Hints:
Blueprint: E1 4-9, H1 14-25, E2 31-34, H2 39-48, E3 56-61, E4 64-69, H3 73-80
Parallel strand pairs: 1-2
Antiparallel strand pairs: 1-3, 3-4
Amino acid sequence: MxxxxxxxxxxxxxxxxxxxxxxEAHGMSYDERAISVDLSARVEMLEKLDSNTTPTVVVFSGxxxxxxxxxxxxxxxxxxxxxxxxxxxxxx
Length: 92
């Protein structure tokens, strides 16, 4: 089952655009909340998620909720990509 992804963004945020490219490259869908036009989204990001950085990504997977602040492709891979690529390093 694919986790639900919620992304807080704002215009002019290069990291937000990189995040969208990442999701597109991985064929992942997400819900986007623009903090510049949605005051409730801004308050949620600042107060509930304790983040003042965009993008802020919330991953809902079953009972687990993970928050990733900023564009962190390595952490997103850990949370979202189920099968490692063939060039991934596997520790034994």
